[in-house]
């Protein structure tokens, strides 16, 4: 459903483009041999190149180039065999060179696309404008001293991929879905870990509004460095409303950079960025154009893993899952693998229900990860085998599952130890039914008088009497015969 | 091509160079002269000619993705006007 802001003068729609900075997974930095690991001692992972010392020359890291191409291919984008590094000039305390080496008019990756999986199971395609390689800046820490900022250059020079979407997004929800999907693709590709808390994936949102039905693009504001998907959505919602209010009160929006204050849930102008749109880009004279061979691109393409969209399509075709279930299962590579292990040689729908239901619930409750799950895929699969061969009823299976979470034991062992095997012995079930009927003659009469809804109550009593072990189908069938027969 | 005073003022601000008002007009003249001098190059017809990036026919050299540098925090900070606890320190820059 379309996201519309109802103003006093009419309905407005929001136009959003996202710029994502994704930290490339590599051992060394983009142009130096210093390490990239997170959380090291301050300035311990800095070379003279990263600190902008005079006379130092950048030498590009081949793996960072490969990762950018891999990501471009994952976004079904055009790979530019020749691209050029340019200097983006600005002054800031954590930018020792006085410029960031980036790419401007000749990025390594051109137009591509990304498919959003909407909540109703349908999809929608968002255009990718470009992807380019650039250096990250250092980190400023403002809370260590009353009048000083502390600068750590460990992050300075780490490779980033700036991934720019077209202004195709129309709601905060779509922006959230875009980020979720992009992160999923990056993780499948192994080109970025997508960790927004540690800052290895950061998002700037370009937001403008226009009257519904209009196709103009109005002045946009850029909200910088929002560090969670939820905050991106909140920032867009706030900013779009602000634009509507400004326009409706007769004002004009000024193009500017704003920051999101998550504590107050609002955006505000960053005065320091007043001149930020005049970066005076020029080709970096220290670096020749980056030329790659088509064979190099083809080699990377041949080694691409199965990506979420293809995996989702396969899950729907091969296992008969619906679009929603398939979308949830493939969002993380590890959960897709978990499901496939459980489903192998078994009823896929049953496997899907257990993974999406009890297993995900247990996973969330335990705080564990899918890599170290509360119940292994092998054990869950074995439990499903016990359901299929009639050893466990659905209800008993739930008990066994809870015990597996608790003890980590295999389902076969638990069934033996605790005597949880389903009772299919008609003699034993009959005895239980007779006892329940004998104890409730008045209710038996009510059923015979036509109040058949009471049958369910009887089933419950018999299940209780057998500690849930009776086969429910048999109980239903025998009860009906005995009471009404 | 010529630069006016407001362009010179904007460039000075971007470059963090402090200029007095009386310096703007002479600089506008000097910078315009430089631009005009370089602009003579546009008289040459370069249609269909690839830009020359280097006098030698070189590709961009690449490095392997191996950690070969770092662990020299003391040298990195050696010339810092101010440092504390392994960090550079600067006047507070925060909004």
TrEMBL record, chain A:
Q: Does the keyword Phosphoprotein apply?
A: no
Q: Name one GO molecular function term.
A: glutaminyl-tRNA synthase (glutamine-hydrolyzing) activity
List the InterPro entries hit by this protein, alphabetically.
Asn/Gln-tRNA_amidoTrfase_suB/E (IPR017959), Asn/Gln-tRNA_Trfase_suB/E_cat (IPR006075), Asn/Gln_amidotransferase (IPR018027), Asn/Gln_tRNA_amidoTrase-B-like (IPR003789), GatB (IPR004413), GatB_C_1 (IPR042114), GatB_Yqey_C_2 (IPR023168), Gln-tRNA_amidoTrfase_suB_CS (IPR017958)
Which EC number(s) does UniProt give? Answer: 6.3.5.-
Query: Which major enzyme category is it?
Result: ligase
This protein's UniProt keywords: ATP-binding, Ligase, Nucleotide-binding, Protein biosynthesis, Transferase
Q: What's the catalysed reaction? A: L-aspartyl-tRNA(Asn) + L-glutamine + ATP + H2O = L-asparaginyl-tRNA(Asn) + L-glutamate + ADP + phosphate + 2 H(+); L-glutamyl-tRNA(Gln) + L-glutamine + ATP + H2O = L-glutaminyl-tRNA(Gln) + L-glutamate + ADP + phosphate + H(+)
Instruction: List, for all copies, the residue spans of the domain called Asn/Gln amidotransferase.
Output: 337-483
Q: Name one Pfam family in it.
A: GatB_Yqey
What Gene Ontology biological process does one annotation of this record name?
glutaminyl-tRNAGln biosynthesis via transamidation
Q: Which SMART domains match?
A: GatB_Yqey
Q: Which NCBIfam families match?
A: gatB (TIGR00133), PRK05477.1-2 (NF004012), PRK05477.1-4 (NF004014), PRK05477.1-5 (NF004015)
Quaternary assembly:
Heterotrimer of A, B and C subunits.
| Annotated family | Belongs to the GatB/GatE family. GatB subfamily.
Annotated function: Allows the formation of correctly charged Asn-tRNA(Asn) or Gln-tRNA(Gln) through the transamidation of misacylated Asp-tRNA(Asn) or Glu-tRNA(Gln) in organisms which lack either or both of asparaginyl-tRNA or glutaminyl-tRNA synthetases. The reaction takes place in the presence of glutamine and ATP through an activated phospho-Asp-tRNA(Asn) or phospho-Glu-tRNA(Gln).
Protein name (record): Aspartyl/glutamyl-tRNA(Asn/Gln) amidotransferase subunit B
Q: Tell me the organism.
A: Magnetospirillum molischianum DSM 120
TrEMBL record, chain B:
Q: Name one GO biological process term.
A: regulation of translational fidelity
Q: Which InterPro entries match?
A: Asp/Glu-ADT_sf_sub_c (IPR036113), GatC (IPR003837)
Molecular function via GO: asparaginyl-tRNA synthase (glutamine-hydrolyzing) activity; ATP binding; glutaminyl-tRNA synthase (glutamine-hydrolyzing) activity; transferase activity
* Keyword Coiled coil set for record: no
Kindly state which keywords UniProt assigns to this record, in alphabetical order.
ATP-binding, Ligase, Nucleotide-binding, Protein biosynthesis, Transferase
Describe the reaction catalysed, as an equation. Answer: L-aspartyl-tRNA(Asn) + L-glutamine + ATP + H2O = L-asparaginyl-tRNA(Asn) + L-glutamate + ADP + phosphate + 2 H(+); L-glutamyl-tRNA(Gln) + L-glutamine + ATP + H2O = L-glutaminyl-tRNA(Gln) + L-glutamate + ADP + phosphate + H(+)
EC assignment: 6.3.5.-
Q: Domain of life, per the record?
A: Bacteria
Instruction: Extract the PANTHER family matched here.
Output: GLUTAMYL-TRNA(GLN) AMIDOTRANSFERASE SUBUNIT C, MITOCHONDRIAL
Assembly description: Heterotrimer of A, B and C subunits.
State what this protein does. Allows the formation of correctly charged Asn-tRNA(Asn) or Gln-tRNA(Gln) through the transamidation of misacylated Asp-tRNA(Asn) or Glu-tRNA(Gln) in organisms which lack either or both of asparaginyl-tRNA or glutaminyl-tRNA synthetases. The reaction takes place in the presence of glutamine and ATP through an activated phospho-Asp-tRNA(Asn) or phospho-Glu-tRNA(Gln).
* Family as reported in the entry's similarity comment: Belongs to the GatC family.
Output this protein's name: Aspartyl/glutamyl-tRNA(Asn/Gln) amidotransferase subunit C
Q: Name the gene behind this protein.
A: gatC
């Amino acid at each position: 459903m379309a996201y519309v802001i109802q103003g006093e003068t009419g309905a407005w729609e929001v136009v959003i483009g996202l710029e994502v900075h994704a930290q490339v997974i590599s051992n060394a930095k983009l142009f130096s041999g210093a390490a990239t690991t997170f959380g090291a001692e301050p300035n311990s992972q800095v070379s003279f190149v990263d600190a902008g010392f005079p006379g130092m020359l950048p030498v590009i890291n081949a793996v960072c180039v490969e990762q950018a191409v891999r990501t471009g291919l994952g976004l079904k984008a055009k790979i530019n065999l020749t691209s050029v590094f340019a200097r983006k000039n600005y002054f800031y305390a954590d930018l020792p060179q006085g410029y960031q080496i980036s790419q401007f008019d000749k990025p390594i990756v051109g137009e591509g696309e990304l498919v959003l999986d909407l909540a109703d199971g349908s999809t929608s395609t968002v255009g990718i404008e470009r992807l380019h390689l650039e250096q990250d800046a250092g980190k400023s820490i403002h809370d260590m001293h009353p009048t000083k900022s502390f600068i750590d250059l460990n992050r300075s020079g780490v490779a980033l991929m700036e991934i720019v979407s077209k202004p195709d997004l129309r709601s905060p929800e779509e922006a959230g879905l875009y980020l979720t999907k992009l992160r999923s693709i990056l993780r499948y590709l192994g080109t970025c870990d997508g960790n927004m808390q540690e800052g290895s994936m950061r998002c700037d949102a370009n937001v403008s509004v226009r009257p519904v039905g209009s196709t103009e693009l109005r002045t946009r504001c850029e909200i910088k460095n929002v560090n969670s998907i939820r905050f991106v959505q909140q920032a867009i919602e706030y900013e779009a409303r602000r634009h509507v209010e400004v326009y409706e009160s007769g004002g004009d929006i000024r193009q500017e950079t704003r920051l999101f204050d998550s504590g107050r849930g609002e955006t505000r102008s960053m005065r320091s960025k007043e001149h930020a749109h005049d970066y005076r880009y020029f080709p970096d004279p220290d670096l020749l154009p980056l030329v790659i061979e088509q064979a190099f691109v083809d080699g990377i393409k041949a080694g691409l893993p199965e990506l979420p969209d293809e995996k989702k399509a396969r899950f729907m075709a091969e296992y008969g899952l619906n679009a929603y279930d398939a979308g949830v299962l493939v969002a993380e590579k590890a959960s897709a693998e978990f499901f496939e292990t459980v489903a192998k040689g078994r009823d896929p729908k049953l496997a899907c229900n257990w993974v999406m239901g009890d297993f995900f619930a247990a996973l969330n409750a335990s705080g564990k990860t899918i890599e170290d799950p509360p119940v292994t895929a092998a054990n869950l699969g074995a439990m499903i085998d016990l359901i299929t061969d009639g050893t466990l009823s659905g209800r008993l299976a739930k008990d066994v599952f809870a015990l597996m979470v608790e003890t980590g034991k295999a389902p076969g062992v638990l069934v033996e130890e605790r005597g949880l095997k389903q009772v299919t012995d008609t003699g034993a079930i009959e005895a239980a039914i007779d006892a329940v009927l004998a104890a409730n003659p008045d209710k038996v009469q009510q059923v015979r008088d036509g109040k058949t809804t009471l049958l369910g109550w009887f089933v419950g009593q018999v299940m209780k009497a057998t500690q849930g072990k009776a086969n429910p189908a048999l109980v239903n069938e025998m009860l009906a015969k005995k009471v009404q027969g | 091509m010529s630069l006016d005073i407001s362009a010179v003022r904007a460039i000075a601000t971007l470059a963090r160079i402090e200029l007095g008002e009386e310096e703007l007009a002479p600089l506008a003249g000097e910078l315009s002269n430089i631009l005009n001098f370089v602009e003579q190059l546009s008289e040459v017809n370069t249609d269909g000619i690839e830009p020359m990036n280097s006098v030698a026919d070189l590709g961009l050299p690449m490095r392997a993705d191996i950690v070969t540098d770092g662990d020299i925090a003391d040298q990195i900070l050696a010339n810092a006007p101010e440092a504390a606890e392994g960090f550079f320190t600067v006047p507070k820059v925060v909004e």
